[in-house]
Structure formats: C-alpha cells, structure tokens
Amino acid sequence: MHIEYDRDTCIGMFQCVDEWEAFQKNLDDGKADLEGSEERDDGVFVREVPDDAEFDAEYAARVCPVDAIKLFDDDGEQIV
Questions:
Q1: Domain-by-domain residue ranges, the chain?
Q2: Which domain of life is it from (predicted)?
Q3: Which of 71, 79, 75, 80 is nearest to 4 (CA)?
Q4: How far apart are alpha carbons 31 and 7 in whole angstroms?
C-alpha cells in the first residue's frame, strides 16, 4: 500500500496530522509534511505505508477536506 500527497492542494487544516504520525505540521508553510516521502516530478509526495499504519493512513486520507491525500493498494487501485 502506498500514499500520495499533493502538498500544493493542502490548505493546512492539519486533520491528517491528528490521524497519522507520518504527517507533521509545518507552520512556516501552513501545510502538512509527509515524513519519509519522496517528491515525484509532478510535485506529489509518495511513500509506502507500513502494514501496522494502514488504518491510520486511511483515516488521514479520509479526513482531508480537499482530497489532497490518496491511498492505493498494492495493485495500484485507489482505496481513498
């Protein structure tokens, strides 16, 4: 499972931060940061989700008010 985070879309509500510790508040930018992620050429940040964090990652994606976070299973199908 992997997560994709479009930081440009983020509006800094930080709801994801409350759901998964991989998201951290960046008060300087007014947006969340996804720890351990790599930025693709299109500006989206991507990282693998550990098995023990799948539930938290899913909630982080579900609570984002602007759908900046997407979650994909191992087959590449979007879950959230």
A1: 2-72
A2: Archaea
A3: 71
A4: 7
Whole-number Cα distances in Å, 26 to 32, 41, 57, 71, 75? 5, 22, 18, 22, 32
Sign of torsion, CA 2 13 30 25?
negative
**Alpha-carbon distance 37 to 51, whole Å?**
16
Q: What is the pLDDT along the chain (80 residues), one digit of tens a residue?
A: 999 999 999 999 999 999 999 999 999 999 999 999 999 999 999 999 999 999 999 999 999 999 999 999 999 999 99
Instruction: Please state whether the predicted TM-score (pTM) of the whole model is above 0.90.
Output: yes
